[in-house]
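Let us practice reading a record.
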Amino acid sequence: MQQHPRVTWVQYVKLTQGFAVRCTVCGEQATTGALNGVEAFAQNHQEHRSAAPGHYGAGDLVASATKALGIAPCTPCEARRRQLNGLFPRAWRR
């Protein structure tokens, strides 16, 4: 199995016809006929906060700090949190 490059908790494997995809956080599995189906699956599961339940992602840490400072979260902030969690899913132990 290979890990998705941006959403590291999504794994996929090439089959004879298509791909098998699995999310290691929630356990959901699917099969798709093309690589863009793997991308769509990863996009749906990008919302998971970290690759491991025992860790906070970097985006979660930034969101906690800004909330403590009294800065209200907005839509771009949420997108940034997800992107940082995808890049650094295991920044801090819970």
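A brief commentary: The chain has a mean pLDDT of 83.
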